[in-house]
Amino acid sequence: MILRPSIRLAREADARAIGVLVRRVTRQDVLPDQSAKAARHLMETMSARNERARIREGKRYHVAEIGGRIVGVVATRDDSHVFRLFVSRRWRGLGIARRLLDRAVGDCRRRSGTRAITLNASAFAVGAYRRLGFVPKGRLIARGPAGVVAMPMVLALDPPSRARRGRHN
Q1: Which are the contacts of 16, defined by CB distance < 8 A and separation ≥ 6?
Q2: For the chain, which residues score pLDDT lower than 70?
Q3: Secondary structure E strands in 80-147
Q4: Burial of residue 56, with CB atoms counted within 10 A of its CB: 0-12 exposed, 13-18 middle, 19 or more buried
Q5: Is the pTM of this model over 0.85?
Q6: From CA 57, how far away is CA 135, in angstroms rounded?
Q7: Looking at the domain that runs over 6-156, which CATH code has it been given?
Q8: How does pLDDT run across 25-65, given as a tens digit for each residue?
Q9: Cα–Cα distance between 52 and 67 in angstroms, integer?
Q10: 3-state SS assignment for residue 130
Q11: Domain range summary for the chain, segments of one domain joined by +
Q12: What contacts 164, CB < 8 A, 6 or more positions away?
């Protein structure tokens, strides 16, 4: 029997589980391609306290749950930029990242009419983001004061259909 995750908007009470998930996956998949300085910076920004603060600030987090356990998370800011998309290794390959991204994109479009979603992909994640429809808009380089290595990518969204905008032919 394949368990289908439920996807919901995260609450402040989810911050600890989100922090544990993103820090674990980051250690496994992202840090091997980062400098020590970048690794420290990334791990500090992913604490439960920081995740809770972002939720309070209005950043939109959606979580995937299976059996009451958070197994994936996507987070957006400004209804146009993904800054978290993580799925626990145990639950990969089941379409959870796609479902989380679809939910977040739909949320951004409803709220702001978003036409494109951006993100900065780690070297490990570039292939996965390509499979989700993102295209590179630069190359892997160290960015920001901590020198985090990432590739800017963008997902162009189709404009809403006329029917959805309430227009008739």
Answers
A1: 48
A2: 1-2, 160-169
A3: 81-87, 116-121, 135-136, 141-143
A4: exposed
A5: yes
A6: 29
A7: 3.40.630.30
A8: 999 999 999 999 999 999 999 999 999 999 999 999 999 99
A9: 22
A10: helix
A11: 6-156
A12: none
